[in-house]
Amino acid sequence: MFYRIVKIATQEPHGNTYVLAHYWRSRAASRRGEPPSRINGFPMGLASKVVEVMIFDARGWAQTRGGKWVDVTDPRNVTGIEVWKVRPMVLDRGSMIREVVEAYYWRAEANDYPRDYSKEPGIRRSKADPNGVLLETASLVGEGRLVQGR
Question: Whole-prediction pTM value?
Fold first, then answer.
């Protein structure tokens, strides 16, 4: 499968990211100018580049701000009043977009989705970039990627 991200825009008024992708069964089909075998538009909530994540140890236990480790897999250990220790994590939003776009094709093929799944009535797109997603992922637009079958 070969795909090309055709557009990345901001959806108004909520600010989600919209990604439009075209898919061909092969790179050669794209080069010959054949129409895409699939088209999809992806609304994605990629607002924050940095998020806070809880801190876990190798056992999967979470740490409170007070330093206590809690087995959160057992609901009896969680009272609901804990304040968890967190750390910042920087997201690679370009990789997140690629992952979603690439996974869609195989799901669409397996489940016989409609060929063009990009039409979403009522969605307005803009070039506004309140969260910096368009600037960060601009290099993905027009990029073609060949992905081997699954």
Answer: 0.71
Task: Give Cβ neighbours of residue 131 (< 8 Å, ≥ 6 apart).
Answer: 15, 17, 46, 47, 48, 49
- Measured CA to CA, the distance from residue 62 to residue 55 in angstroms comes to 6
Dihedral over alpha carbons 73, 76, 79, 80 (to 10 degrees): 50
**Rounded Cα–Cα distance for residues 72 and 99 (Å):** 29
| Distance in angstroms (rounded) separating the CA atoms of residues 122 and 14 | 12
Of residues 110, 103, 100, 83, the one with CA closest to residue 137: 100
User: What local confidence, expressed as pLDDT, does residue 122 receive?
Assistant: 60
Cβ neighbours around 97 below 10 Å, total: 22
Neighbours of 127 (CB within 10 A): 8
State the 10-residue block means of pLDDT for the chain, 150 residues long.
88 80 92 93 82 92 94 88 90 89 91 84 68 77 73
Tokens found for residue 148: 């081997």
CA distances from 129 to 6, 89, 116, 136, 137 (A): 17, 21, 26, 10, 11
Pull the structure tokens for residue 119: 């039409």
